[in-house]
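Appendix C reproduces, verbatim, an entry submitted by the partner laboratory led by Prof. M.T., so that reviewers can inspect both the input and the predicted structure.
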Amino acid sequence: MWGHEGAGVLTDEERRVPDAEPRREDAARFILDAAARARDRLNVITIGPVTNLALALQMEPGLAEALGPVTIMGGLVDRGAVAWPAYFETNLNADPLAAEVVLGSPLDITLVPLEVTLQVYLGRADRDRLARDGGPVSQRLARLIDEMREPFLAFNERNGLDGSHFDERTYMHDPLAVHVALGGSHATVRETHIAVEYEGQILRTVEHADRRPNMRVCVAADGPAFVSGWVDAVIGV
């Protein structure tokens, strides 16, 4: 895929990696320190590769007992529900070994997979509402969405996808994961057993309903209801 995070938010200078790069374990150490300082068990939400969490688990095997629920935005459980190639699931496939470590750990995991996050998206009318009806935050967000759509549309064309995927829709992958982590009412979650398996070089999160449950999986979302509430909240800021 490509890295677009920060486009339109940070300047080119701010996005440049400094000469004194952070050490490999710094982010993992941050997780360990935060868990140690927390008065209650720390809840974690991952919205990208799980590299840092996997490294933290390897540095401190007892971390799983110190953490509360962990919500992971990633994976592709119902392969038949997505017309896109399996490799479009990038969060876990960006570091499949880390995904194996985390999903195979005793963490209290809820998985929010790609086939469900694709059910939640802003349409043109929603983007117009953000630009028209909100204050500075809402209007700025609408401009950022427009800027970020350009590389998505190019990706859309390169891969021969239906234009509606990115021209008509702005997918809400990360916000849905946060909604699930907060116990939101617009998502359906159930316990099941998820195993990490491989389809060639592609990591798959495969459900085995006949096995003992080892995590929760988000299996459906009411996209229109979630988007309506989200847009109202942002406009109200």
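The CA atoms of residues 194 and 207 lie 5 Å apart. Additional entries are available on request from the coordinating office.
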